[in-house]
Specification:
An eight-stranded mixed β-sheet has the order 3-2-1-4-5-6-7-8, sandwiched between helices. By secondary structure, the protein is α/β, with parallel strands linked by helices. 52% of the residues lie in helices and 13% in strands. It contains 13 helices and eight strands.
């Protein structure tokens, strides 16, 4: 099929390559001309603007957006709309908040534009092994773009999961689960590293990946990381978050669902960004005040 791709960062550019490898025609655009030129070298047709991209595609158009969540998505859609026609399809494959996707689906439907929210998992490995795609929106729009989904995903790695917003809701919870899993691995390996035994963490990660109940792709990635840097001495313990973990916790609160592992894994990320915890200072000061316990002075 023919597809427009907007946003040619690591994910978007790799998706373009995978689509081209599957025999699809891709018209590509990025605000950074160098990114557009890079995918042109592998066979994509470059576009100089959103208008140029829309004019180059045949009707009914299918345009896939891979830009950061929030205003960049709205701005991209706003820039596209004057150049689209009724029946065209916009796919948001980024990590948008599902409530934004519900709103966009409703607003675009009123203009005759079909909208799909495609939660996309696979990271930088997606080019090689494929992307897991969780797609929300109208079934006819899903069917129209399904050839691209089939190329981008591994076998059984894509599905229509519900109406507009459902795809990004599923991806949100997926990432919340990921937070909890990663935190459990991090705590376990820290206990191993702190013990009196001189453990080879790379060896243990590899061992656990052969038949143990905690084997996983994340553990394979831990094995790779420990092989490169056994003590992770070249990495600072600063852990960012891209929003999905927060949104999962918000949703759990709104629905009165207990989610302690996901919530605490998010809090651990916040703590990782503090060079020094003011809260910990308060705790030390209180212990000193009520019990005369020693504090460490600067």
């Amino acid at each position: 099929m023919e597809l427009g791709m907007i946003g040619l960062g690591r994910m978007g550019a790799n998706m373009v390559q995978r689509l081209l490898g599957g025999g699809h025609r891709v018209v590509a655009y990025d605000r950074n001309p160098e990114a557009t030129r890079a995918v042109e070298t592998v066979g994509a047709q470059p576009a100089s603007s959103l208008e140029d991209l829309a004019k180059t595609l045949s009707e009914p158009r299918a345009v896939w957006i891979m830009v950061p969540a929030g205003d960049p998505v709205d701005q991209t859609i706003e820039g596209l709309l004057p150049n689209l026609s009724r029946g065209d399809i916009i796919v948001d494959g980024g990590n948008s908040y599902y409530k934004d996707s519900v709103r966009r689906a409703r607003e675009l439907s009123g203009k005759g534009i079909r909208f799909l929210d495609a939660g996309t998992s696979g990271g930088i490995w997606g080019l090689k092994v494929g992307y897991c795609l969780m797609v929300g929106g109208e079934e006819d729009a899903f069917g129209a773009v399904e050839p691209a989904f089939k190329t981008l995903a591994p076998e059984d790695g894509y599905a229509h999961v519900g109406p507009g917003g459902a795809g990004h809701f599923v991806k949100m919870v997926h990432n919340g689960i990921e937070y909890g899993m990663m935190q459990a691995y991090a705590e376990g390996f820290e206990i191993l590293q702190a013990s009196s035994f001189d453990f080879d963490l790379h060896k243990l990660a590899g061992l656990w990946n052969h038949g143990s109940v905690v084997r996983s792709w994340l553990l394979e990635l831990a094995e790779n990381a420990f092989e490169k840097d056994p003590q992770l001495s070249g990495i600072q313990g600063y852990v960012d978050d891209s929003g999905e973990g927060r949104w999962t916790v918000f949703e759990a609160i709104d629905e009165d669902v207990p989610a302690p592992a996901i919530a605490l894994s998010l809090m651990a990320r916040f703590r990782s960004r503090q060079e020094e915890s003011f809260g910990a200072k308060v705790l030390a000061a209180l212990r000193n005040e009520f019990g005369g316990h020693a504090v460490r002075r600067k």
